[in-house]
């Protein structure tokens, strides 16, 4: 089994799982919009998650991403943060160049 891609940094500091640009959920889920976003994002003051854990990408529906295979992320690591109107976009998203055969 390949390693789950890690959330190496997240700049969405208003999220309850975020401390010092690290995500402390066990895993996040990323959605399939043209700007894929972290669906696990929850704004709030009460910090949550496991402070010893660094989140992985448990699932990603962005099949148009170069790093996506079978709705899983194989980027190795990802960055999350603000982009355009999104609060928690996957900044590692790369539009797939070649269509799958
Ligand atoms: S926005 Fe997503 S990646 Fe960032 S800390 Fe929150 S749950 Fe983790
Ligand atoms: S890098 Fe691509 S496959 Fe990985 S979480 Fe981001 S959008 Fe999904």
* Main β-sheet, spatial strand arrangement: 1-8-9
Count of β-strands: 9
Helical stretch tally: 0
Largest sheet: 3 strands, mixed
**Residue share in β-strands:** 25-35%
Let me know the average pLDDT: 94
Structural class: mainly beta
Q: What is the helix/strand order?
A: EEEEEEEEE
Question: Helical percent range?
Answer: under 10%
Bound molecules: iron/sulfur cluster
Question: How large, in whole angstroms, is the Cα Rg?
Answer: 13 Å
Alpha-carbon distance between the termini?
A: 24 Å
Quick one: overall form? globular
Low-confidence stretches: none
Structural domains: how many: 1
Structural account:
The protein contains no helices and nine strands. With about 100 residues, it is an all-beta fold. The chain has one domain (about 5-90). The strands form four sheets. Strands 1-8-9 form a three-stranded mixed sheet, with no helix packed on it. The protein has a two-stranded antiparallel ribbon with strand order 2-3. The chain has a two-stranded parallel ribbon with strand order 4-5. The chain is globular, with a radius of gyration of 13 Å. The two termini are about 25 Å apart. The relative contact order is 0.28. The structure holds iron/sulfur cluster (2 copies). One iron/sulfur cluster binds near residues 5, 67, 73 and 92.
């Amino acid at each position: 089994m390949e390693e789950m891609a890690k959330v190496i940094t997240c700049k969405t500091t208003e999220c309850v799982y975020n401390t010092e640009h690290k995500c402390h959920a066990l895993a996040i889920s990323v959605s399939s919009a043209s700007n894929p976003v972290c669906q696990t994002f929850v704004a709030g003051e009460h910090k949550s998650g496991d402070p010893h854990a660094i989140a992985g990408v448990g699932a990603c529906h962005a099949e148009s991403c170069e790093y996506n295979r079978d709705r899983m992320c194989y980027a190795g690591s990802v960055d999350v943060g603000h982009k355009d109107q999104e609060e928690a976009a996957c900044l590692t998203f790369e539009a797939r160049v070649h269509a799958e055969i």
